[in-house]
Amino acid sequence: MRITRLGSALGARVDGLDVTAGLDAGTVEGLYQALVDHAVLVIPAPGLTPDQHMALGRAFGEIEVHAFFPNLGSGYEQVSVLDSAQGNTASMWHTDESFLPHPPMGTLTHAEVLPEVGGDTLFASTSAAYDALSPNMKAYLEGLVAVHDLSRTTELRFRFGGATPQQYADAIAADRRSLHPVVRTHPETGAKGLFVNPTYTRHIAGLPPDESDAVLQFLCRHSVKEPFTYRHRWADGDLLVWDNRATMHMVLNDFEGHRLMHRVSVVGHAGG
């Protein structure tokens, strides 16, 4: 297994590893440590099957059935399908399912069908973004908590004609929301990182609305500055694994044609 850094803040390529053949415990732990060290791993995995995809996810920990994405169906409910033909292109910055009480630890996404050009995925290091804040801003954010709400996505669709008033009302009534610290500590590295995103974060609890809006807008802009980011240009069969505790990401919706991904999310690390 050879690890090559791809970005200064995050990202690495893993070569010499056949994830379709199954991995022993030592290799899994080595791969997990590489994930902790680099936050995003690019692994060539042409021909990866859904069974192999789920097996690799389970090697890291428990895998989930996604809250809203469609999946491959009976026996493969944990393999989500992100199909541009169905409008499932995550083209806003976000951390996966941050509206849950315990968002996924990591995500494994495999390229099934790629457009000829475009459709890159951008990643941002939330710890690098935090480290670059001024001491005064770090002190201000300490102890603040923010509301993350799934209905935010329906609100955005409603604003642009993609959802009905009833769908918007139903999304609010479903109350899929959670409170999370604005600054989280990574359980493995001890590094502090920002934990807000424009897709799911609604407001900072206890702040006046104008102050909350201004702080969130600043943090969301700050978090995706170029020094904190890595841009991945997909190749056929790429498997990307990212640490959801240390990153945000988004897809560039700049492509024509079909973009289809299979995704498995890990709820918690098998090692603890």
What is the name of the CATH architecture of the largest domain? 4-Layer Sandwich
CATH superfamily placement of the largest domain: Clavaminate synthase-like
Number of helices: 7
Number of self-contained structural domains: 2
- What integer value in Å does the Rg equal? 18 Å
Q: Kindly report the CATH topology of the largest domain.
A: Double-stranded beta-helix
The helix-strand sequence is EEHEHEEEEHHEHHEEEEHEEEE
Please state the overall shape, judged from the principal axes of the Cα atoms: globular
Total E-strand runs? 16
For the termini, the CA-CA separation is 23 Å
CATH class of the largest domain: Alpha Beta
Strand content: 25-35%
Main pleated-sheet profile: 8 strands, mixed
Helix content, binned percent: 25-40%
Mean model confidence by pLDDT? 93
Q: What are the segments in which pLDDT stays under 50 over at least 5 consecutive residues?
A: none
- What structural category arises from helix and sheet content? alpha+beta
